[in-house]
Amino acid sequence: MAKGTIRLADVAKAAGVSQGTASNVFSRPDVVREEVREHVLETARRLGYAGPSLKGRLLRAGKVNAIGVAAVEPLAYFFDDPWARALLAAVSQVCDASGTGLALVSAKDRHKLDWNIKSALVDGFILLCVEGGEKLVQLTRERQLPFVALALNDEDSSIPSISVDNLGGAAVAARHLAELGHRRFGVLATEFSDDHVGPAGIAEIERAIYSTSRNRALGYWQALDAFGIRRETLPIYETINDKPSVEAGLEYLFSAPEPPTAILAMSDNIALLTINWLRARGLSVPRDVSVIGFDGVPEGGMVEPGLTTMAQPFAEIAQRAVQAVLHDSMPTEGEMIGVSLIVRGSTAAPKQ
Amino acid sequence: MAKGTIRLADVAKAAGVSQGTASNVFSRPDVVREEVREHVLETARRLGYAGPSLKGRLLRAGKVNAIGVAAVEPLAYFFDDPWARALLAAVSQVCDASGTGLALVSAKDRHKLDWNIKSALVDGFILLCVEGGEKLVQLTRERQLPFVALALNDEDSSIPSISVDNLGGAAVAARHLAELGHRRFGVLATEFSDDHVGPAGIAEIERAIYSTSRNRALGYWQALDAFGIRRETLPIYETINDKPSVEAGLEYLFSAPEPPTAILAMSDNIALLTINWLRARGLSVPRDVSVIGFDGVPEGGMVEPGLTTMAQPFAEIAQRAVQAVLHDSMPTEGEMIGVSLIVRGSTAAPKQ
DNA sequence: CTCCAGATTTGAATCGATTCAATTTATTCA
DNA sequence: TGAATAAATTGAATCGATTCAAATCTGGAG
Questions:
Q1: A115 in the same domain as A194
Q2: Which of A107, A134, A130 is closest to A119 using CA atoms?
Q3: Å separating the CA of residue B39 from the C1' of nucleotide D24
Q4: Which positions in chain B touch A64 (Cβ < 8 Å)?
Q5: Would the Cβ of B52 be found within 7 angstroms of any atom in strand D?
Q6: Do A98 and A152 reside in the same domain of the chain?
Q7: Per-residue pLDDT tens for B85-133?
Q8: Which nucleotide is nearest to B15 (CA to C1')?
């Protein structure tokens, strides 16, 4: 319709009021006399004015009223990965409630990511640091906007981050199984270091670059220790959280002379793959083998049997992250949130 | 760090060049002499300048370089609903490739939605009109930005929209089953009108407000007609695409004296629920009952047996939609895209 | 040594609103 | 009726960049 776009100034002139008043009509209607307000509004309507341009408003007012969620992944990651989805769903809930916009920022390619972060119109960032967190943090810092890192695999305390209690959670998971009577365990781990798959040794794990996985392993060890199970005897297989590597891990664990009666999976994704694999092999879950996951993604509650897992409080994480970014109250040091055991059908006492 | 933010003007002054030159250093580096450029850059670095503020740039340059995807749903919808997810994954792919940002805009509540749409910093919108499309289109129009409606349930040709060939696709689906030899069908429909669940009559369907469902029904009728199956004899049960209503529909269809050997589901979601229900009843798919879906969501390929379905070309839809919005080349009238039959394990010839 | 085209720089105008001190108008109260 | 006070309106400054016509600088040809 309207060719040369109508500006607030045009409306003001046409209505015979000052620009200041015209502005007030839209952004603080209460301050202008009803009569005048109606008249300006009417004029605006007649001219086809689309309302105050966000661009102009933005410049003056400063706040975009939107936050960006960033990851070193293709954009589709946000819709494909169960953990990311669960988190984003929670973040969007919070944003919804506070009338904040949500922008998705990501790219697998560093250069593009750089540009995307530089040009995202947001007031701050939530960083999904599952992978490539360092890069992400660095890029974001340059932007000089508030940000908070989630699932950061780095214990650099100068990075404002919110993470879950991986060590404590893993300990609870292991204790749960041990208390049910299990004594023969197998661990399917998420990455300890880049591009490595296969059985992982103790020394290797202790100096793993990915702290998430390392802490979960430490948690398992610590809890099992109390039941007299020494870490040297606990088989740990490192996967990359995908089907082939998980199945390779299962082959490895179940080809042992005394196969495990319980699987400690470092992610729900791994746990779910595990249950499928066991089923296909004719093993019953939890009768023959118990499985416990980690994360608490919704999918875990929708399968049969339900997945016992350590649930991250997504809502709480999202709440704090959004608050931190919006109010520029980033945690000065890493903040930690607890996880809670959700017992569903995938764990039970071992067979006699 | 830097308290009072540094502006381009500050850098220019500190470097002893004009603001114009300083601007060029950042946005058209090639035009300024290397020596000067280096000096300005160095000065900027020293001052802790974060680069040209997007806000200022935006005002002058005009383009946000981002599109908004909007729906009349809670924000979490984008991460929960399989169809929305599949579509968004495709849209993000396209955006990724063209360096365009993606903003999620939604709210179940009309007032909030209004505000969210008004205040989204985007160059245009893609509207997910599965539900409440009319409202959405109306709100978006006020914003005077390019937009394109997807899955619009309204045949108003003045609305720029991209939709799939529901009638043709449904016909192909029905023909596929008929050609396999099926003669006893049951239809599980998506909504024909608001808040109605239960068996749907012909007259009712013909004047249904949701054109998507209506056209799919018409497609089924048309194809089956060619096989001598009259529409009066085809049981159609209207669901709201959720578990309870689908199961009620199945109870209805299978309590008939001659239960169907093939189910025509108007969405993959319904089809997937159907397969689960049949399984739980001890009926084998496809041996006892064939099931065909509609949409082609990824989940359909990940279950056992795989779901036969009419696949929407998500990538193509996304491509066109993004192009249309970005280049303001909205289809002047509704544009239609074909769907294609994907045969997987859930359909087969009926038992003798 | 002068002149000129081409390469760089400059400075001011502009984008479209918001904001606030100052001014004008309306209302209240003695 | 007039002063004091409150409410509404104005106008200019401002946000932080980009843009472009005009001014200045170069180097090479004549």
A1: no
A2: A107
A3: 20
A4: 121
A5: yes
A6: yes
A7: 999 999 999 998 888 889 999 888 888 888 889 889 999 999 999 988 9
A8: C9
Interchain contact, A96 vs B107, CB within 8 Å: yes
> Does residue B28 lie within any of the structural domains?
yes
* pLDDT for the residue numbered A98: 84
Omega before residue A52 within 30° of 0, cis: no
* Termini Cα distance of chain A: 78
The model's confidence at residue B3, banded by pLDDT at 50, 70 and 90, is very low
Q: What residues have CB less than 8 Å from B324, skipping those under 6 apart? A: B146, B148, B160, B162, B330, B331
Residue B350 placed within a domain:
no
- Say what angle helices B133-143 and B110-119 make with each other, to 10 degrees: 30
Indicate yes or no: strand D within 7 A of the C-beta of B7.
yes
Write the residue in B74, B96, B103 that is nearest to A102 by C-beta. Answer: B103
Residue A271 lies in a domain: yes
Strand C contact with B35 (CB < 7 A)? yes
Say which of A51, A103, A107 has its CB closest to residue B103: A103
Pair A171, A139 in one domain = no
pLDDT tens digits for range A21-80: 999 999 899 989 999 999 999 999 999 998 999 888 888 877 888 999 999 988 889 998
Nearest CA to CA, how far is B104 from chain A (Å)?
6
Question: Tokens 């496809």 appear where?
Answer: B286
Within this chain, do residues A173 and A92 fall inside the same structural domain, yes or no? no
CATH classification of the domain holding B36: 1.10.260.40
Q: How far is the CA of A50 from the C1' of C14 (A)?
A: 21
Same domain (yes/no): A255, A302: yes
B102/A107 touch (CB, cutoff 8 Å), yes or no: no
Cα–Cα nearest to A69, from A115, A116, A34, A11 = A116
> Among all strands, which nt has the closest C1' to B55 (CA)?
D16
Domain range for B288 is: 165-312+338-342
Distance from CA of A63 to the nearest CA of B (A): 9
CA gap A260, A186 in Å, rounded: 6
Considering CB atoms only, which of A54, A102, A107 is closest to B104? A102
The domain boundary residue, chosen from A163, A189, A218: A163
Helix (H) / strand (E) element for A41: namely helix A34-47
Q: Are residues B156 and B18 in the same domain?
A: no
